[in-house]
């Protein structure tokens, strides 16, 4: 089975699709209204994440009349949702129009009334079990958690989670976010728990917290948010991050230093991220146009260029619109064969347990 089929089959998102849904506004009407608004405010979109730099430039090139106001590129999913809450009555530049958050944050934000629905023109090619039926949130891309390793500082590259507890990795291992707020870090804890044999959800969260407690007690955990710069500087020689982030950092650093991205032998956790529009968006039409762009073939290929599997991947491959060089640039399928895609309930249970237990169990204040 190919990597593409393996991931989608494992996710359980290759099944029946809903019928096309007509939008209340035509794309031409959305575009005209968005141009009149003139601005789109995004949040938490680092340019190296999923090639967001290229995606944003593609949007601006297509719609030069619309400027993009980028807020806090290093924010976590919880910070994005809080930014909507904090700016309900604010129509200024600090109020985000759109968010890109971890899967567990979509339904909770919707339940709180923080999201407004919009069904993009390609709605029927977004698999049914990664979107809200009414269009409040929808999956955008996915990847797996991996080890991103500075080979100039780490002589023996770790191949599995248990390796990270070895004395040779003292003061070396970091998460790519604060596990009390960052979806990437929250799922990093869950992945560690899965590697011990725990079931996805609260059980894996408990096992993962205990794993990080062991790592912290051993002096191996570094309470610094890992990114390309901290890896290059040697502050965090090993970072637990999404495979696509690691691969983008590798390209960005271009051998200075040399990075290796390792999909662990166990605890291979795949994660889907979501797009949504704020219910209080100051520029709601620009937000809709942004979504239309992201879910077009052009936008989806922009993410794929950044090593992220876009949610419409299967549809695009079937229609022959994915360049072969992009397919060839993806990591080999073998590392993904054991990928686990948790359900929304499992993700929510894990997130609640990790956020509640990190300080008391692990006790490492990540900054």
TrEMBL record:
GO biological process, one term: thiamine transport
Domain of life: Bacteria
Pfam family for this entry, one: SBP_bac_6
GO cellular component, as recorded: outer membrane-bounded periplasmic space
Signal peptide span: 1-24
Keywords, alphabetical: Signal
MF annotations from Gene Ontology: thiamine binding; thiamine pyrophosphate binding
Protein name, as recorded: ABC transporter substrate-binding protein
